[in-house]
Design the sequence.
């Protein structure tokens, strides 16, 4: 009898509270249903939207923006394979079919940009539904809008067309959108950047490292130049120049760039990608990619100054070409600040001396782990933007002072250009050396329509003199080098396989 | 009468009923007495029916196996007992008759454990195969599943790695899923366990039933689609106290056969010399004279292996008094691995106790604690991870020992020799790194059973499974298992504690009733199960002293490697079953289970899984009586719907990761991002299965034959559907697609000779096939690592380019399609599958196609057992035909750039038009641009036929009977060889059963099966054993 009672009791206990019993949400993770509900959530979400920039600038931008030009090349190490993804970009030989490419750098750039876009869409879709302090909200919205504009501006310049997502995707069916045209993307970048410029505080008020109203206006100036809207560009660039928030660092060109732990977000900095040394995972390592190899630890030690230098194998990247080295005028202080040389005892070349990019190579504590920030926009570029905008409106003399301000800091005399054409060439040349290795070169070639006039002869030089471009004796560039000279990269093949739209 | 009665016997009531029968009293005049014993153990057999042929006089043996019956001289006594072969004995003029009965292997009257109950074999209408422990007792391995290799029709059991206690892949009827787990559900004494079946001491097992079709499994509802394995542990038989002691000791070693033939030091140096010469470059001084390495070869792979002992001890005590029955099994298993510093130990105890409080009330209590210790170097894995793979491709010119006989720290050649890695000393890594797991398992049940009225049984059980697992990894400063890490290195420790708690309450009511020729059994139940896992992981590094790898001894706690987590699920179920037969020959079973699961989306929380099966014992019909050779024939058919809920615990939720941080200046700012999309409709995978079976016994049961045909369709497969990442997400978890499976299974048992020499053969062969019917809308293919799963084709096929040798000369090159920028004379030649004149890998003009199949045409097993006098011999073999493996390690071991050691075959590569070698491996000239193609672009050179037949086990035993001894009753001595020999043409490594991926549940590796990364080899084991019965 007792047993019977026990059984019945067990049954009763078990049957009650059944619904709750089956509700088992995750205990050690937040779920989106309860997340976007307070100010702190949006602060975190905005911070999360910055995160992909580290990956983009550490791993991709220099491949697609600098190696894909006459400024840098790879120092071929024939003992090492599986490097065609990078080589193909530098060789203008990306595998292309039906407008798509299988290149991994292209794919990753594309995906990282859309990470920023999806994260900012999530913020912008919900932030107005939650009540909190207006100043804080404007700042957060402004940052989100800027980051979205920045990502789309990268996409439109790399690809010329891209899907336009402005609201969060909630299910599988919404994931693929049709390709928007360049004009539609420009319009979105413009409207987002304009709104961001209004909502964001100026640099003096903003937390260092976050984007500001000045950053948004600089992005706008960049966009307008790209679109050849010269007077609009002049207006926004002049806003930045007259804001008194920025000035050139005059103590020397090498002081412009952040060190591994200091000189970050300085007075010349308009926007830079923030890295931090240490084991927490916020570090960069791009300067290691910019070194030729095989390099012994002894050869590396003076460059990095770490306590545990290790030898580098494989193939290096982003090595200054003889072309960029020759581009510096005599007496240009930027040359020695930007480029240095290293001798590799184990190189298979007869000439074992290689140049490398010095401007970012700052001493740091541990091998492979740097905190040096990446400069995206500097005040020097804003000055050159303004000069270009003025000159293109046929005001070369108005442009000259801004150009000269940059030249003066480099230890050079004033420009001799007076005509609009000469001034155009002078500004173009100044951008090349002032902004060398800052991922500007490819975009400058595209927007000034110089692919044919610059890359074709450059390609011929590489093919004719491989030894000058760091090939070991006997080795030559692949036979399909410099065959694909499109202004845009192909869309990524892996994405093409997933969307019906391209 | 007896047969029908047994039909109604249900869980744990067998003994009760038997007792009642044995109390019946009969009275006759002439008395014959005797004892019936078990031919195997010599123990008295209680409950044996003894009848006088041609009369209705019968009795049963008592607890000691004694009987007493009245019968006239000249009559014949008939002895029969469930699970034993019957005997007829002429009385002649004797008054005492002592006989022994032998256990029948596949008797039709055998009691078979089925889901939530028992049935006798002839009444079973589903596809159920059962195995008794005796059939695998001599196989000297640690895991139950290893012992079953080759014994089960329709079940593919592969040993993918030789790591003790690990690596068994069990697939019932070829079940597969894109991303949900495909392991069967293991149920121990009615309790579906969540832990590792490998931790169960096989000596605790009495029987195993494998439920294959939907009708047999549907009472397990949303967990049934992968098949169910029911394990019943030892119970005390009615009778005297039995004590038995079983032990074996053995020695394991890795056979030479099948090891990958790598270059030795001289061959390697010769290769390097030729490499530079062919490229027109100066040969580095290290390789100018290859013969300097004569006698200085370093076999890194061989250096990691050793001969290793194993031993096992089991003590079993069973006792059964009037009210209490107890079985106790205590076991010790201790295996050293054939890889250095590998050991596996298991200490286990099980106590099963039943109390009969009264005729109506029974209580039971089972408890089984175990402790498992395992230390395994990180042997398996890809380059850079698994030390066996790494050792394989380490330069043989690099010394294992230095001039003083000490292990070298690490090895590096100058950069101009093409040495781009610092190679650790793998022997040092194996010996000095700790990688140990200590598990405490506890499995317990209590039940109460009550019979309020005749035919109705109420049973309530409460089950608990507990696991406390402690993992400890320590990499001291003096060794490393990573490339490019100089020694001394930074010491690292990882501690992970995992605690799993599962409880299950089941409440069942069973009602049995017969009237006229109609026999019913009704089962209804309500169950609740809950699982919770908590884990904590702490990673610390930078130790000042390797002797103190404590957390506090570390200078740094690694934040990224330090975390904790919770995994939890809950399941509520209702179940019901009707079993009906008419005259014992027309059989019907209908069952249904309804599962509510916390894993399913809020809009789709309950799933219902019905099934029905019918059987017809055609041999009981009058028209069959003339067919004298057919002793039994039954036709079965079943259909049912079952599910697979191995879809992850929180897959339905959209999660926010709040560790995607940003940096501003020198400050870190917490960042949060939504990492997945929610799906409120997410549910189980559904499998609809049809089964048609035939059971046939011929020639007085000398030949028993079982055939099953099945077809099943799995739909709503859980898949993390790739979405274009413009969405900001890579995947959306959804139920998609359809896979069709079908197959044939044949099992036959023949008693070839039954006289003095008893020879029995069990053989089975199974053909399993599958085809992908649909994937998600707009998606007709998904890719695995080197695999494609494509609509209209079988699942998970190898995918790559078709290699056609090398370009033999300039003319060949000019006339053939090429890879722009990469093809040269002597480089790999690829078939232009899409005919566009250019070879392309990936993208829209892909030349890849299906190049192989990891699934066999058929699998088979054969077991022969022979008995002659006191000797017994058994030979178990199993094999697989038509499957292929992808020899993945070739991407390093045939890397033509000479950065790794290579397979010897690379000696015969293309060197020049005049010296083209075997036309298999291409030229080394041109570096990665040229050589990278054949290495990095998956192609048919990597595919190898992996058909095999392995003689799993040969055991020779000798039985001793100690009739006069009061202490010891019988003994058996035996010698066995496990993994005696493998017949195969597979050239990619020693183990044709291997698979680097796709072993585990939910690891997403199902799409990528059959990859050989040079896993831990499976050793050959020689053992000597003894069984003693007291």
Sequence:
């Amino acid at each position: 009898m007792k047993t019977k009672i026990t059984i019945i009791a067990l049954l009763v206990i078990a049957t009650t509270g059944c619904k709750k019993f089956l509700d088992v949400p995750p205990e050690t993770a937040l779920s989106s249903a309860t997340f976007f509900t307070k100010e702190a959530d949006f602060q975190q979400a905005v911070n999360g939207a910055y995160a992909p920039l580290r990956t983009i600038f550490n791993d991709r931008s220099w491949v697609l923006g600098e190696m894909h030009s006459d400024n840098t090349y790879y120092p071929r190490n024939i003992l090492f394979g599986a490097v065609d993804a990078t080589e193909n970009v530098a060789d203008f030989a990306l595998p292309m079919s039906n407008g798509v490419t299988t290149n991994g750098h292209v794919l990753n750039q594309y995906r990282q940009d859309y990470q920023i876009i999806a994260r900012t869409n999530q913020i912008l879709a919900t932030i107005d539904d939650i009540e909190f302090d207006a100043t804080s909200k404007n700042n957060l919205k402004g940052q989100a809008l800027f980051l979205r504009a920045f990502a789309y501006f990268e996409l439109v310049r790399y690809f010329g067309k891209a899907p336009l997502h402005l609201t969060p995707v909630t299910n599988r069916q919404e994931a693929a959108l049709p390709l928007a045209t360049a004009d539609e993307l420009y319009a979105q970048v413009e409207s987002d950047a304009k709104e961001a410029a209004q909502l964001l505080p100026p640099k003096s008020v903003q937390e260092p490292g976050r984007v500001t109203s000045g950053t948004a206006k600089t992005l706008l100036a960049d966009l307008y130049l790209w679109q050849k809207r010269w007077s609009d560009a002049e207006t926004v660039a002049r806003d930045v120049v007259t804001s008194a928030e920025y000035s050139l660092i005059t103590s020397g060109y090498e002081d412009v760039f952040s060190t591994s732990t200091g000189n970050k977000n300085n007075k010349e900095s308009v926007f830079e990608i923030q890295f931090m040394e240490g084991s927490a995972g916020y570090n960069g390592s791009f300067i290691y990619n910019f070194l030729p190899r095989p390099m012994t630890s002894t050869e590396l030690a003076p460059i990095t100054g770490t306590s545990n230098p290790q030898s580098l194998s494989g193939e290096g990247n982003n090595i200054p070409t003889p072309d960029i080295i020759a581009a510096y005028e005599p007496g240009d202080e930027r040359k020695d600040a930007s480029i240095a040389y290293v001798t590799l005892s184990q190189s298979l070349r007869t000439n074992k001396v290689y140049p490398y990019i010095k401007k970012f190579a700052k001493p740091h504590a541990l091998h492979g782990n740097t905190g040096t920030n990446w400069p995206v926009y500097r005040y020097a570029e804003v000055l050159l933007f303004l000069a270009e905008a003025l000159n293109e409106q046929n005001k070369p003399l108005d442009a000259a002072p801004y150009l000269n301000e940059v030249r003066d800091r480099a230890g050079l005399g004033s420009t001799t250009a007076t005509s609009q054409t000469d001034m155009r060439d002078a500004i173009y040349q100044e951008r090349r050396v002032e902004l060398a290795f800052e991922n500007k070169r490819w975009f400058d070639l595209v927007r000034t329509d110089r692919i044919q006039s610059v890359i074709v002869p450059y390609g011929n030089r590489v093919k004719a003199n491989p030894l000058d471009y760091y090939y070991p004796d006997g080795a030559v560039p692949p036979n399909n080098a410099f065959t694909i000279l499109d202004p845009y990269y192909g869309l990524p093949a892996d994405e093409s396989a997933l969307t019906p739209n391209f | 009468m007896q047969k029908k009665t047994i039909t109604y016997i249900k869980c744990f009531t067998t003994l009760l009923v038997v007792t009642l029968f044995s109390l019946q009293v009969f009275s006759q005049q002439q008395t014959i007495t005797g004892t019936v014993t078990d031919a195997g153990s010599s123990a008295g057999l209680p409950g044996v029916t003894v009848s006088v042929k041609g009369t209705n006089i019968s009795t049963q043996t008592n607890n000691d196996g004694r009987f007493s019956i009245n019968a006239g001289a000249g009559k014949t006594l008939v002895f029969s007992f469930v699970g034993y072969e019957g005997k007829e004995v002429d009385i002649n003029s004797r008054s005492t008759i002592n006989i022994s009965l032998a256990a029948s292997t596949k008797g039709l009257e055998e009691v078979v454990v089925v889901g939530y109950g028992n049935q006798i074999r002839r009444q079973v209408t589903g596809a159920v195969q059962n195995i008794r422990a005796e059939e695998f007792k001599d196989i000297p391995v640690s895991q139950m599943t290893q012992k079953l290799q080759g014994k089960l029709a329709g079940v593919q059991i592969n040993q993918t790695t030789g790591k003790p206690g690990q690596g068994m892949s069990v697939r019932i009827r070829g079940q597969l899923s894109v991303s949900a787990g495909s392991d069967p559900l293991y149920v121990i004494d009615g309790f579906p366990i969540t832990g590792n079946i490998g931790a169960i001491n096989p000596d605790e097992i009495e029987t195993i039933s494998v439920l294959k079709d939907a009708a047999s499994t549907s009472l397990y509802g949303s967990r049934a689609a992968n098949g169910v394995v029911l394990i019943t542990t030892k119970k005390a038989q009615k009778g005297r106290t039995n004590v038995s002691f079983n032990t074996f000791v053995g020695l394991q070693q890795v056979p030479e056969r099948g090891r990958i033939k790598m270059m030795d030091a001289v061959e390697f140096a010769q290769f390097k010399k030729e490499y530079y010469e062919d490229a027109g470059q100066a040969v580095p001084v290290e390789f100018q004279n290859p013969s300097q390495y004569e006698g200085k070869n370093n076999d890194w792979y061989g250096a990691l292996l050793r001969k290793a002992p194993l031993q096992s001890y089991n003590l079993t005590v069973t006792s059964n008094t009037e009210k209490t029955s107890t079985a106790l099994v205590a076991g010790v298993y201790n295996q050293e691995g054939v890889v250095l510093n590998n050991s596996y130990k298991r200490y286990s105890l099980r106590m099963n106790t039943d109390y009969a409080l009264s005729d109506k009330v029974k209580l039971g209590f089972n408890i089984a604690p175990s402790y498992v210790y395992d230390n395994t170097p990180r042997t398996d894995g890809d380059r850079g991870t698994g030390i066996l793979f790494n050792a394989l491709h380490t330069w043989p010119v690099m010394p294992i020992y230095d001039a003083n006989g000490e292990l070298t720290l690490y090895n590096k050649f100058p950069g101009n020799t093409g040495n781009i890695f610092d190679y650790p000393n793998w022997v040092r890594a194996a010996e000095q790194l700790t990688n140990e797991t200590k598990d405490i398992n506890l499995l317990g049940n209590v039940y109460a059973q009550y019979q309020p009225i005749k035919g109705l049984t109420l049973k309530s059980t409460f089950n608990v499974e507990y696991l406390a697992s402690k993992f400890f990894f320590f990499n001291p400063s003096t060794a490393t298992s990573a490339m490019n890490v100089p020694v001394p290195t930074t010491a690292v420790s990882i501690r992970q504690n995992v605690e799993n708690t599962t409880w299950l309450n089941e409440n069942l009511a069973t009602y049995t009733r017969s009237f006229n020729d109609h026999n019913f059994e009704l089962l209804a139940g309500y169950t609740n199960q809950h699982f919770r896992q908590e884990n904590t992981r702490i990673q610390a590094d930078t130790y000042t002293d390797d002797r103190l790898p404590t957390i506090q001894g570390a200078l740094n706690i690694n934040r990224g490697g330090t975390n904790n987590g919770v995994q939890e699920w809950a399941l509520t179920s209702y179940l019901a079953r009707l079993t009906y037969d008419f005259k014992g020959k027309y059989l019907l079973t209908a069952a249904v289970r309804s599962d509510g699961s916390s894993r399913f989306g809020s809009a789709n929380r309950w799933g219902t899984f019905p099934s029905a099966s019918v059987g017809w014992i055609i041999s009981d019909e009058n028209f069959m009586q003339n067919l004298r050779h057919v002793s039994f024939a039954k036709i079965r058919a079943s259909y049912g719907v079952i599910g697979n809920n191995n879809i992850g615990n929180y897959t339905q939720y959209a999660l926010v990761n709040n560790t995607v941080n940003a940096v501003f200046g020198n400050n870190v700012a917490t960042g949060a991002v939504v990492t997945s999309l929610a799906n409120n409709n997410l549910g189980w995978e559904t499998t609809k299965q049809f089964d048609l079976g035939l059971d046939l016994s011929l020639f007085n049961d000398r030949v028993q034959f079982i055939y099953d045909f099945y077809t099943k369709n799995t739909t709503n497969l859980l898949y993390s559907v790739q979405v274009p990442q413009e969405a900001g997400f890579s995947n959306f978890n959804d139920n998609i697609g359809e896979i069709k499976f079908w197959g044939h299974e044949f099992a036959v048992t023949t008693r070839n000779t039954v006289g003095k020499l008893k020879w029995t053969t069990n053989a089975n062969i199974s053909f399993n096939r599958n085809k992908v019917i649909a994937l998600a809308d707009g998606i007709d293919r998904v890719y695995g690592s080197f695999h494609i799963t494509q609509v209209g084709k079988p699942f998970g096929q190898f995918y790559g380019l078709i290699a056609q040798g090398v370009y033999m000369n300039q003319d060949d090159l000019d006339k053939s399609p090429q890879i722009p920028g990469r093809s040269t004379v002597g480089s790999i030649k690829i078939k232009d599958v899409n005919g566009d004149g250019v070879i392309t890998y990936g993208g829209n003009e892909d030349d890849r196609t299906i190049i192989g199949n990891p699934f066999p045409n058929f699998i088979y097993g054969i077991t022969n057992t022979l008995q002659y006098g006191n000797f017994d011999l058994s030979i178990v073999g199993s094999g697989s035909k038509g499957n292929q493996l992808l020899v993945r390690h070739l991407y390093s071991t045939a890397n033509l750039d000479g950065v790794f050691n290579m397979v010897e075959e690379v000696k015969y590569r293309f060197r020049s038009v005049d010296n083209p070698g075997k036309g298999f491996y291409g030229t080394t000239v041109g570096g990665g641009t040229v050589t990278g193609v054949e290495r990095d672009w998956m192609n048919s050179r990597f595919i190898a036929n992996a058909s095999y037949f392995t003689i799993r086990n040969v055991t020779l035993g000798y039985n001793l009977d100690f009739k006069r001894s009061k202490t010891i009753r019988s003994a058996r001595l035996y010698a066995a060889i496990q993994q005696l020999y493998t017949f195969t043409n597979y050239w990619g490594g020693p183990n044709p059963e291997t698979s680097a991926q796709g072993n585990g549940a939910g690891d997403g590796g199902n799409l990528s099966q059959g990859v050989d990364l040079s896993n831990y080899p499976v050793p050959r084991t020689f053992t000597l054993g003894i069984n003693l019965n007291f």
Q: What stands out?
A: Residues 1-28, 998-1004 of chain B have pLDDT under 50 and may be disordered. The longest strand of chain B covers residues 518-543. Chain B touches chain A through 97 residues (CB under 8 Å). The CA atoms of residues 74 and 92 of chain B lie 5 Å apart.
